[in-house]
Amino acid sequence: MLASGVTVHLVENGGKPSQAAKMAARRKSAYAALAADLLSSPPLSSSSPLPFLGVDCEMADYEKVKGLSDHVRLCFVQTSSRRVVVIEALTSRRGEREGGLSDELRGILVDGEVEKVFCAKRQDVAALNAEMEAGGGGESGAGKVNNVRDVQTLARNFGRKGGEGKGGGGGVGKEPGLAKVLSFASRGLVFTKRSIKKEQWWRLRSPEEMIAAAGYVQYAAADAWGTWLSYELMRKENEEGGKGWRGEEEGEEARYEELVSSLRGATAVSDVLKRE
């Protein structure tokens, strides 16, 4: 089942020079696993053949990043396929932002043959584009995130059978969070997310602090995987104009039921993930 088969890889780009070779090998292995899973997991919707990844970013709100109105620092970038999540931590040396995005991650973000799916994309995409423009740490140069989708927009504009909610929020409100989007996409299962305020995670100021905080890596991974899953579950209905959740392709209904049944009994998205 999917719930027991999602693996989280935490990799770093930056940190101590003496660890550079080891970290590069870990990144290469993690992104190779992501690519292999991406190619081996055809989407439910055969009418949209492009592979897609769930993408999310974690930021700390004290450093100004070009292109954003807020004072933030990009700390984690999470990418997810069906069974693999890679969290890239933009770690630093002596408090300086020296890591930037790895070449592996840059290649994914600019690849026009892979859809990048976000939940509330504006700030994340702006931060990623700013980081790539700055050219921090990568050999592939500047670029922009392309072929972007947003599950928040997709859920908001959904038209259920009979037209309910079409163009008017789709029953999820104007700016639904990921838990609400995933609950909507999974046909009535109710999901929650751990509270950043309650956990005091809003105090985290660096990738290093995020790695050390109990439960935060799992929380970050869940954001990317939940985004991937939301898009997988909603895309078929969206293409068919809201006529139904399941299509007519052979085996598609069984695969849909596998995805949804794997979530039953989980109240938090992170419950279905395991750390490498």
Chain-wise SSE layout:
Blueprint: E1 7-12, H1 20-40, E2 52-64, E3 71-80, E4 84-89, H2 103-110, E5 115-118, H3 121-134, E6 148-150, H4 151-156, H5 178-185, H6 196-199, H7 207-212, H8 216-239, H9 252-261, E7 274-275
Parallel strand pairs: 1-4, 1-7, 2-5, 5-6
Antiparallel strand pairs: 2-3, 3-4
Q: What report would you give on this structure?
A:
- This protein has a seven-stranded mixed beta sheet with strand order 6-5-2-3-4-1-7.
- It is 37% helix and 16% strand.
- It has one domain (2-275): 2-Layer Sandwich (Nucleotidyltransferase, domain 5).
- It has helices spanning 20-40, 103-110, 121-134, 151-156, 178-185, 196-199, 207-212, 216-239, 252-261, and strands at residues 7-12, 52-64, 71-80, 84-89, 115-118, 148-150, 274-275.
- It has nine helices and seven strands; from the N terminus they run E-H-E-E-E-H-E-H-E-H-H-H-H-H-H-E.
- With 276 residues, the chain is of the alpha/beta class.
- Strand 5 (115-118), helix 3 (121-134) and strand 6 form a beta-alpha-beta unit.
Note the gap between the termini.
17 Å
Helix and strand run = EHEEEHEHEHHHHHHE
Order the strands across the largest sheet as they lie in space.
6-5-2-3-4-1-7
CATH topology: Nucleotidyltransferase, domain 5
**Total domain units:** 1
